[in-house]
Amino acid sequence: MHVIHRRAWELPEHLVTAEHVFFNRRKFMAAAAASAFLPGVAHANAVPLNPKFQDAGRPVTSEETNTNYNNFYEFGSSKRISSIAESLVTKPWSLTIDGEVEAPQTLDIDDLMKQVTLEQRIVRHRCVEAWSMVVPWTGFPLSQLVAIARPKADAKYLRLETFNNPDMAPGQKPGFFSSYPWPYVEGLTMAEAMNELAFMVTGAYGKDLPKSMGAPIRLHTPWKYGFKSIKSVVRLSFTRERPVSFWEQLGPQEYGFWANVNPDVSHPRWSQASEEVLDSGERVPTLLFNGYGEFVADLYKDMQNEPLWM
Asked: pTM (2 decimals)?
């Protein structure tokens, strides 16, 4: 009997991209290459597509859906915050790098973009609320930013922080979400930050990143639930101590530091066994590590006592 051994990221046959979808993806790639001259980024050539991440096994979610269905609590609790998020001022924008580094520095976003190599990736995104999408990102591996930061050997974690500007973001105004611990904070281990999947996003669909999606620069960690992928980053701090993230502060019984995708570990209020694929509305089985276990599973060996799936 012939036994098929699938790799961790491979999907069963009933979830494999259909032929017509594959050719739609090819059309998307051609269009993206033609429009990949991101106006806010200094580079001269079309951004190449990383061959490791060129097919997510599902159709690319429409740009309209992605842009208009988003959690960005700085601008309100509804997912329909795209018009309100237009108040986000993205120029000028800078990133402060501090903590356990050789030399703290502040980088203008345009200067940063001259020091990194951009690529495109088509990857899955899984929300803790049990919906998912496929996004064509443009950006660069987080490891490139770590190299620019030059962390010391004492650095064990990377703490990421977004802006805090109540005049610009209504969700940060006193009394709106008064119990929320602004600014939004997230964290990774250094091993996670150096993993090739960890990606700093500067664009989507061959264009500059929309404000509703976290312009001008955000994180995406496709093996984790979406709330780990902090938007509109302004500070990266390298620390010895594990940072306490935004949702971990608000609801530690529901949201933890690790937040890796696992269909067998339910959220306290709902199952994570399946997910709704946006656009199609189809409900499909959730994959361990969102299907990216081949890249990241080794990061969590001998950590059985950690709440890796919250």
From this structure: 0.87
